[in-house]
Structure formats: structure tokens, C-alpha cells
Design brief:
Layout (H helix, E strand, L loop, with lengths): L2 H14 L13 E4 L2 E5 L5 E5 L15 E5 L7 E5 L8 E6 L2 E7 L7 E4 H13 L2 E6 L4 E6 L3 H11 L26 E4 L11 H9 L14 E8 L2 E12 L4 E11 L9 E4 L16 E3 L2 E3 L4 E7 L7 E8 L4 E9 L9 E5 L1 E4 H12 L1
Parallel strand pairs: 11-22
Antiparallel strand pairs: 1-2, 2-3, 3-4, 4-5, 5-8, 6-7, 6-9, 9-10, 12-13, 13-14, 14-15, 14-16, 17-18, 18-19, 19-20, 20-21
Helix pairs in contact: 2-3
């Protein structure tokens, strides 16, 4: 066994035996009901998104999806948004089964139509009861056509997940029961970042790491490894290595490694490497190799590592995760996904978490105890 691989194994073993009192991520499920996809996150907030009707019309009549967003708490925010790329249109109208159910001014940005409050409830009710929806300019030009097949089941699913069924707040399963908002606290991850430092491994050491890694035979064409400092603590220095590990037309895979050194290279010290660890493995796993991040991005200031895997080039399906570095491993703070490649350019959030520095949390606890 080579020295580098041996060092990786030893450090990885030490990492798995450390106690862990952090929250365990359990992302929600994304379900599909005919031409609608729906899901909720761990805080109880839900999204229902329309999909292209593959049987009738398809992308020929598709200008973008409609998203229904509803929060679970007492604030009860209900929004209906339409993702469109249009210009020079001042006003819109939403038509369900030939009847205008809403009209308003177009705004700028990716979501030129956003309906909230009582108007949103009216439109959501029409969606649940209807068969076809069309967003038009006031002159009748079609901006997008939406199949409502499955919308009733999707909105009923939200009613059930948020415990609104048989209450006046339900969109589908209405009743007279008193609505009691579910109480789900979004978890807080404690992070303990090291003191900022700029030290990183030398290029020769990265070359040795690559040559002894499972990614060696997956590197084709132009490859680019990225190295970032993770700081220093008690004379130890760490670095993040994003090793190129395969690529396709629109997805570029990376394997994350953590390097650590104590002492001076001029006096014989060398970097030891281990695969990065996660509280929940990234969605793309490889047999016999570390988990892969796709189209990885490292935000150095906040120490957040993100992965964005597209199921196809136009980006209407796939999975995305963001992880915060807690000082020892990467912890999931957000995940979203869309398994159906049917025009939903907005994906459904399935997990979210907050994070707080250990010293800030200790100070807060001390204040509360006084």
C-alpha cells in the first residue's frame, strides 16, 4: 500500500470514531402526480410545480412552469409564481378552463408574475378544480400553457403534510376543524472554523495525491484541480482539494479531499490527505471512490461547498446540495431536486438548516442563563 493511501485510511478512521451531537439531515421526498411535482422540506414548507404535459402539446406551448409555495407556520404565506422570460408585456391574465381568474401587472426578473394573499388562494382553488391553465398577455397572446392534471393531488398532499386537511385553511381537503400550525424548528449546525491562513499543499504533493487516487483513470481532456486554505489551529494547517474526477457535456465531477500538515516542509513535514466526510453523502456516489460533487463551487468566506448536478443541459432536472464546513466535516444546510426532466427549471427544496459559530452559540447560551 502506498504511503499516501495509508495516511488517508488512518485519518479517515480517526474521523469516524469522533462523537457527533450535530443534527442529522433527513431531506424530504419529492413526489410526482401526473403533470405536477410536489415536496416539502424539514421545516414543513412545501412547493408544487407544474411539469410539461408530454402527451399533449409538450414544449411547443410551454413558456415556463407555475410554482405554488406555502409555508407551514402561523404566518401561512401562500405564493403563486410564474417563471417566464418575456419582455415588453405590461400586464397578464391567468385563464383557467376559459375563465379569467386573475390579472395584474408584470414585474421584472425571472418571476414576472407573483400572486399572493387572497388572490393566490383564489387562483390555487381554481387550479385544483381546473383542467387547463393559460397565462396570456391582455391581447390574448399565450405566454405559457399548463396542464392541471395532478394538481389536485399535489395540493392535497400539501394539505396533508402541513396538517391542514379538514380545516378552513386547506386548499383541497377543506373542513371545519381548527388548524394548529405544525411546530418544526429548522436545525442549527454548530461550526468551529479555524483561524484564517493561506497555507496550501505544493503542486508536487497534489500530483502525488492524484496519482494514488481512484480518480486517476477518470481524468479526460482538460482537467483542473482546485486547492483552498481551510485555516490553522494549534500549529496545524488544513486545506480543501477539489480533485477533477470525470466530466461530461455539462457536468464536471470533483472529489473533495482534506489535507493537513503540522510543521515546516523545509524540515521534512509533509501533507497528509483524506477524503472529505459528509453528514449526508452527496447525491452522486461512485463505487470504489469518494463521493462526487458535480459542478462544485467553494465559497471561501462562509466555507460553503456546493454541488449542482444537472440531469440534462437545459437544467430542468437534477439535484443540488450545499454543505457548511464545521471544522471537521461537511454538513448539509440545503438540498433541492427535481427527478422529472419536464421543464421545471425551479427545483423543490427538501432540506434546510441554519448554522452558527461555536463561540457565538456559547455567548448566547451564557446570556440566556443570566
Amino acid at each position: 500500500m502506498s504511503p499516501i493511501i495509508s495516511t488517508i485510511a488512518l485519518i479517515a478512521l480517526a474521523a469516524t470514531t469522533t462523537g457527533d451531537a450535530q443534527p442529522v439531515p433527513v431531506p424530504g421526498e419529492v413526489k410526482v402526480f401526473k403533470d405536477w411535482s410536489v415536496g416539502c422540506d424539514n421545516g414543513g414548507d412545501c412547493q408544487a410545480i407544474s411539469l410539461v404535459d408530454d402527451v399533449r402539446g409538450g414544449f411547443k406551448e410551454w413558456g415556463g412552469p407555475i410554482t405554488i409555495v406555502r409555508t407551514a407556520g402561523a404566518d401561512d404565506i401562500l405564493k403563486i409564481r410564474v417563471l417566464l422570460q418575456v419582455t415588453a408585456i405590461e400586464r397578464y391574465q391567468v385563464v383557467v378552463d376559459g375563465r379569467v381568474v386573475d390579472t395584474g401587472a408584470m414585474a421584472e426578473g425571472d418571476y414576472p408574475i407573483e400572486i399572493v394573499g387572497k388572490k393566490a388562494r383564489k387562483v390555487a382553488t381554481a387550479i385544483a378544480r381546473g383542467r387547463k391553465l393559460e397565462v396570456q398577455a391582455l391581447n390574448g397572446d399565450s405566454l405559457t400553457k399548463i396542464s392541471l392534471a395532478g394538481s389536485t393531488a399535489a395540493l392535497r398532499y400539501i394539505d396533508q403534510q402541513q396538517r391542514r386537511a379538514r380545516t378552513p385553511t386547506a386548499l383541497v381537503a377543506k373542513g371545519r376543524r381548527t388548524f394548529r400550525p405544525i411546530q418544526k424548528e429548522v436545525p442549527v449546525i454548530t461550526v468551529n472554523p479555524w483561524t484564517p491562513a493561506k497555507r496550501i499543499p505544493a503542486t508536487t504533493e497534489i500530483v502525488d495525491l492524484v496519482e494514488n487516487s481512484p480518480c486517476k483513470d477518470e481524468r479526460f481532456g482538460v482537467v483542473e484541480d482546485q486547492i483552498f486554505p481551510l485555516g490553522q489551529k494549534d500549529g496545524r494547517y488544513r486545506a480543501l482539494i477539489l480533485m477533477s474526477c470525470g466530466s461530461g457535456a455539462y457536468n464536471f465531477s470533483s472529489a473533495a479531499y482534506i489535507g493537513e500538515i503540522r510543521g515546516d516542509e523545509k524540515k521534512g513535514a509533509s501533507w497528509a490527505f483524506r477524503p472529505a466526510t459528509y453528514d449526508l453523502q452527496p447525491a452522486w456516489n461512485g463505487e470504489g471512490r469518494p463521493p462526487l460533487l458535480v459542478n462544485a463551487h467553494w465559497e471561501e468566506n462562509r466555507q460553503i461547498l456546493s454541488s449542482f448536478a444537472k440531469g440534462r443541459g437545459i437544467g430542468d432536472c437534477g439535484s443540488a446540495e450545499s454543505f457548511i464546513w464545521d471544522g471537521e466535516k461537511f454538513r448539509l444546510i440545503e438540498s433541492s431536486g427535481m427527478q422529472e426532466c419536464r421543464g421545471a427549471y425551479e427545483w423543490i427544496t427538501t432540506w434546510r438548516a441554519k448554522y452558527q459559530k461555536a463561540e457565538e452559540l456559547a455567548a448566547q447560551n451564557e446570556l440566556e442563563s443570566q
